[in-house]
Design brief:
Blueprint lengths: L1 H11 L8 H13 L4 H20 L27 H10 L11 H11 L3 H6 L5 E2 L4 E4 L2 E2 L6 E2 L7 E4 L2 H16 L27 H12 L8 H13 L6 H8 L4 H5 L18
Length: about 280
């Protein structure tokens, strides 16, 4: 999606100083007119904001016109798939058997989703320096590929700390040793692609690679095809929100949501057969 935005920017405003808020709004209207979905349009706007933020940082423009555009959060047409506990256990186990893709990083994808609630692109840009082992804190933050100079900025533009379970810390320690033995260790948790790519160990994975590998595993294991990487993120958030001590504001920070309304959408209802009405005081 970032490439689509770059292509449009190159055609609409070769000199980014000529880009205006009105030009971006017109582009969004054109997408809607041709039938692109609300979420697709919203994600393109988000990518545009982040790319232009980098342009501001590099001194290419003085201000980011995309930051002046506000859009209502699209409604979710279908409820995200939340995993049952037995499905979580199954994914943790079977992912270890499917190391033939993304340099063996599929177990990392599953665990970073279930134990930290990371988005796809956050997983691919995650670096080993993000993990503080002694504090058991994982910090999602600005990431730079030293080889290419490419910069990645979190969606909410701010670093966020995640306290993570010991199981994740232990796994990452084992994974780091595995990568070192296989001569695959680089700055990123998951090295970027096959050995045919020059300097692949120093690059992040393509943002689409984790989902593609995850889909192959789900198909191979004959699991519900509705289970996606985003199901892991929704499961993580939903499970934590069902703990009495967890509040929405804390979860908003942990998930990196700009609006608390987005966090509220993760409040999946308790199943009817759980009979929450039994708690009524009458």
């Amino acid at each position: 999606m970032a490439r689509q935005v770059v292509t449009w920017l190159e055609g609409a405003a070769p000199d980014l100083r000529d880009l205006t808020r009105e030009m971006i709004q017109q582009w969004l209207r054109e997408q809607e007119a041709r039938g692109d979905g609300d979420w697709t349009v919203m994600h393109r706007l988000t990518k545009t904001r982040l790319l232009l933020d980098q342009a501001v940082t590099l001194g290419m423009v003085q201000a980011n016109p995309a930051r002046g555009i506000t859009r209502r959060q699209p409604k979710v047409a279908t409820r995200r798939r939340i995993l049952e506990e037995h499905e979580i256990e199954q994914l943790l186990e079977v992912s270890l058997k499917h190391r033939q893709w993304i340099n063996g990083g599929l177990p990392t994808v599953v665990r970073m989703g279930l134990y930290a609630g990371l988005r796809d692109e956050e997983m691919t840009w995650a670096q080993w320096t993000w993990l503080n082992v002694s504090r058991r804190v994982f910090t999602v933050q600005r990431s730079v590929c030293e080889l290419t100079g490419e910069v990645w900025i979190p969606k909410d533009e701010e670093a966020r700390d995640l306290g993570v379970k010991e199981e994740l810390v232990d796994y990452l320690g084992q994974e780091k040793r595995r990568l070192r033995r296989a001569d695959l260790l680089g700055p990123f948790l998951m090295p970027g692609g096959g050995a045919r790519r020059p300097g692949f160990k120093e690059k992040p994975l393509s943002e689409n690679a984790p989902q593609a590998a995850f889909r192959k595993m789900v198909r191979a294991e004959k699991m519900d095809p509705a289970i996606t990487i985003y199901s892991l993120r929704h499961t993580y958030c939903t499970m934590l929100l069902r703990i009495p001590e967890t509040d929405l504001r804390t979860m908003q920070e942990m998930m990196g949501h700009a609006s608390i309304r987005t966090t509220e959408s993760y409040l999946h209802p308790i199943r009817a057969e759980k009979h929450p009405s039994d708690a009524l005081p009458y």
